[in-house]
């Protein structure tokens, strides 16, 4: 190309044509065009990197560090550490447990660090043997239908697909799960077994925490035995030194400019004023509340139908997905903490990690006011864990309060009993503790360090994007209940939502941060596949979207399969939600059958499970003879388990199978996504 250009230029000179020929102009245009696109592509990439929200990450390797040092091994070596605690966490509990283990390592002369596997090159586990008396601990939660948490997905896949030689790696695993779910601690169990298969040495047996019972007790009991095993394995002894060392130090930010102070944003400063797509867990969309109406017809309970406006957001959802809602704590509780601790809630502060090597510089977005931290970032309504009891001891001036806290922080049978009764059974949160132990006056900055992060709440989406592409609907019961100490505890998210009532168009509409979480709860690919939906109470939510989508297909002229819905509530005239909609779908043929159970409209209680047993022939006809799909949504603790037992029984009887064959048949349905559950406990 250059040669041909040279020949033509020479020709230009010889023939004495104008100095700037048409070809020169063309080349000039090409060069300018290439330079233009190169410049703006680079600028776009730079801008894209700038748009990545400020991320609050664990004490591990930040994204910036990864570019030059993605090896946690190098960090362990350079800082003289021998203990690394990885976590797979969706709600923050596993990360909290990991931090507690790493902190306690100092008592056994094992300096520790917490690491996020998503930010680490996990292939470097093979080099752990190069560090004397090293140990890797994994605090791993199982999420959804037996899935790894988002931040542990890459590590899980690396274990599945790789064949690294992990001989010389010493490890232990603690799993976080919930026994009401079928895939109890499945990911932690797999990781524990797979590490051993790859040659690693298990220092202590796996611990399985059950969030449906007392996961704190499970963790503390396992942790105590873990350190016994560690001492035995390495031939070391506990130093006896307490590890109540502050992880963060207080920084006065009274001189910080107002525009540099966080006011509730999840990650990026001013993100709600300057919204940037895509929206996710670290960058939620500030949605307007378009509709908020009551669904219950009477009674003292409340169920809300709420519609989030996503018009113009570029957000897309599928039927069956979940929407995450970011709540905030009530101003009443926040003010109470300020009053009890005699603190200035409007003082601006920051908490800075005392470990300069850590990439998690702050426990939450800083700087901010104490009011902002307590309102948007910290969980002040859940039951505090035992390590918080331990940290509060030094702030108790009354010996009786001190002794009570010491007892609850201990791992003795008496201590566990007291913690279970006084904290868990009586349902005390941090505000109640400060009220009932009046001599306990912790520094507010230390309390902010101790409290867990306030988590978003997930709701099944009760609409179809085919029908409502510009809005997301949810169906939510208002949570209010009286505790054994005669206090009224209120659900953080639902009580906030209940206050967000749209007004006329002239006034600003109420808003709340949201994002969409993808789900595996999906309609069959073919619209003619028959389905059975079992959803009592607000378990109806995703099925409202399913029915809307099938109704849309029917109106387009497509063939749709049978749709059978089982719905139950207390009383027909009180809490039969979406009654008119459902009856209309029955009338137009979209909903083939509507089986209703009103538990309190007759002397003997009747539930959807009773109706399932009565309709065994219909059930087998759809899931057995027609290879249809079955869906369950609602309470995991009892309803979903009862449904599963009934399905197995029907398959046995109508399919003429043994119990073992029926169980295998139902298991195969689950594997084929023909039996799906969207449940909670």
UniProtKB/TrEMBL annotation:
Give the protein's cofactors.
FMN; FAD
Where can this protein be found? Answer: Endoplasmic reticulum membrane
According to the UniProt entry, its GO molecular function terms are: flavin adenine dinucleotide binding; FMN binding; NADP binding; NADPH-hemoprotein reductase activity
Instruction: Give the highest taxon in the source lineage.
Output: Eukaryota
Cofactor: how bound: Binds 1 FMN per monomer. Binds 1 FAD per monomer.
* Membrane topology reported for the UniProt record: Single-pass membrane protein
A GO cellular component annotation here is:
endoplasmic reticulum membrane
Q: What UniProt keywords apply to this chain's record, in alphabetical order?
A: Endoplasmic reticulum, FAD, Flavoprotein, FMN, Membrane, NADP, Oxidoreductase, Transmembrane, Transmembrane helix
The answer to whether the entry has keyword Cell cycle is no
- GO BP, sorted A to Z: response to hormone
Where this protein primarily resides, as one coarse class?
A: endoplasmic reticulum
> InterPro entries, per this entry?
CysJ-like_FAD-binding, FAD-bd_FR_type, Flavdoxin-like, Flavodoxin/NO_synth, Flavoprot_Pyr_Nucl_cyt_Rdtase, Flavoprotein-like_sf, FNR_nucleotide-bd, NADPH_Cyt_P450_Rdtase_alpha
Q: According to the UniProt entry, what is the EC number of this protein?
A: 1.6.2.4
- CDD domains listed in its UniProt record: CYPOR (cd06204)
Q: Which reaction does it catalyse?
A: 2 oxidized [cytochrome P450] + NADPH = 2 reduced [cytochrome P450] + NADP(+) + H(+)
Q: Which residues bind FMN?
A: 89-94, 141-144, 176-185, 211
EC class of this enzyme?
Answer: oxidoreductase
Instruction: Please tell me where FAD binds in this chain.
Output: 457-460, 475-477, 481, 491-494, 680
Stretches assigned to the Flavodoxin-like domain: 83-227
TM stretches of this protein = 20-39
Decide whether keyword Plastid is in the record: no
Purpose: This enzyme is required for electron transfer from NADP to cytochrome P450 in microsomes. It can also provide electron transfer to heme oxygenase and cytochrome B5.
Member of which family?
Answer: Belongs to the NADPH--cytochrome P450 reductase family. In the C-terminal section; belongs to the flavoprotein pyridine nucleotide cytochrome reductase family.
Name the PANTHER family for this protein: NADPH--CYTOCHROME P450 REDUCTASE (PTHR19384:SF17), NITRIC OXIDE SYNTHASE-RELATED (PTHR19384)
- Protein name, entry field: NADPH--cytochrome P450 reductase
Query: What organism is listed for this UniProt entry?
Result: Rhopalosiphum padi
């Amino acid at each position: 190309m250059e040669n041909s250009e040279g020949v033509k230029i020479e020709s230009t000179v010889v023939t004495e044509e104008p100095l700037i020929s048409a070809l020169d102009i063309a080349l000039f245009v090409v060069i300018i065009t290439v330079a233009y696109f190169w410049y703006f592509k680079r600028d776009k990439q730079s801008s894209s990197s700038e748009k990545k929200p400020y991320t609050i990450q664990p004490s591990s390797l930040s994204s910036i560090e990864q570019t030059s040092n993605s090896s946690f091994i190098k960090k362990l070596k350079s800082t003289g550490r021998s203990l690394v605690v990885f976590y797979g966490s969706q709600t923050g509990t596993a990360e909290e447990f990991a931090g507690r283990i790493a902190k306690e390592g100092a008592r056994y002369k094992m300096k520790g660090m917490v690491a996020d596997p998503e930010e680490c090159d996990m292939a470097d586990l093979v080099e752990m043997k190069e560090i004397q008396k090293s140990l890797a601990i994994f605090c791993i939660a199982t999420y959804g239908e037996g899935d790894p948490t988002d931040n542990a997905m890459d590590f899980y896949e690396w274990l599945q697909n790789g064949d690294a030689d992990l001989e010389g790696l010493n490890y232990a695993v603690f799993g976080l799960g919930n026994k009401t779910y079928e895939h109890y601690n499945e990911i932690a169990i797999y990781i524990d077994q797979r590490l051993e298969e790859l040659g690693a040495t298990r220092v202590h047996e796996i611990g399985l925490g059950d969030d449906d019972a007392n996961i704190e007790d499970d963790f503390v009991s396992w942790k105590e035995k873990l350190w016994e095993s560690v001492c035995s394995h390495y031939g070391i002894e506990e130093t006896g030194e307490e590890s109540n060392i502050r992880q963060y130090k207080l920084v006065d930010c009274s001189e910080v400019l107002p525009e540099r102070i966080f006011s509730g944003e999840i990650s990026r400063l001013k993100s709600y004023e300057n919204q940037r797509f895509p929206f996710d867990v670290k960058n939620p969309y500030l949605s307007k509340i378009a509709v908020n109406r009551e669904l219950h017809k009477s009674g003292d309970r409340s169920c809300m139908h709420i519609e989030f406006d996503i018009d113009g957001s570029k957000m897309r959802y599928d039927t069956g997905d979940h929407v995450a809602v970011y709540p905030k704590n009530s101003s009443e509780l926040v003010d109470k903490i300020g009053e009890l601790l005699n603190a200035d809630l409007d003082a601006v502060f920051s908490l800075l990690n005392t470990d300069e090597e850590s990439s998690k510089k702050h426990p939450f977005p800083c700087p901010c006011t104490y009011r902002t931290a307590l309102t948007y970032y910290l969980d002040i309504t859940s039951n505090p864990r035992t390590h918080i009891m331990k940290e509060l001891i030094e702030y108790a001036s009354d010996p009786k309060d001190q002794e009570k806290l010491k007892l609850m922080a201990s791992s003795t049978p008496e201590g566990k009993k007291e913690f279970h009764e006084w904290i868990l059974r009586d349902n005390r949160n941090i505000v109640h503790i400060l009220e009932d132990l009046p001599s306990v006056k912790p520094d507010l900055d230390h309390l902010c360090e101790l409290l867990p992060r306030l988590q978003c709440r997930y709701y099944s989406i009760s609409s179809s994007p085919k029908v409502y592409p510009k809005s997301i609907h949810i169906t939510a019961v208002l949570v209010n209940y009286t505790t054994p100490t005669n206090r009224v505890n209120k659900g953080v998210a639902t009580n906030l939502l209940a206050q967000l009532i749209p007004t006329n168009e002239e006034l600003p509409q109420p808003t709340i941060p949201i994002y969409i979480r993808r789900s595996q709860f999906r309609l069959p690919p073919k619209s003619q596949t028959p389905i059975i939906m079992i959803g009592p109470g607000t378990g109806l939510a995703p099925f409202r979207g399913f029915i809307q989508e099938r109704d849309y297909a029917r109106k387009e002229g497509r063939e749709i399969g049978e749709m059978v819905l089982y719905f139950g509530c207390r009383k027909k005239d009180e809490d039969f939600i979406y009654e008119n909609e459902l009856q209309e779908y029955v009338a137009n043929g979209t909903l083939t059958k509507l089986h209703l159970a009103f538990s309190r409209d007759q002397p003997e209680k009747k539930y959807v499970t009773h109706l399932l047993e009565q309709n065994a022939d219909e059930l087998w006809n759809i899931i057995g003879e027609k290879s249809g799909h079955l869906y369950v949504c609602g309470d995991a603790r009892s309803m979903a388990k009862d449904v599963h037992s009934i399905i197995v029984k029907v398959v046995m009887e109508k399919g003429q199978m043994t119990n073992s064959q029926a169980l295998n048949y139902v298991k195969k349905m689950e594997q084929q996504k023909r039996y799906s559950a969207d449940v909670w406990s």
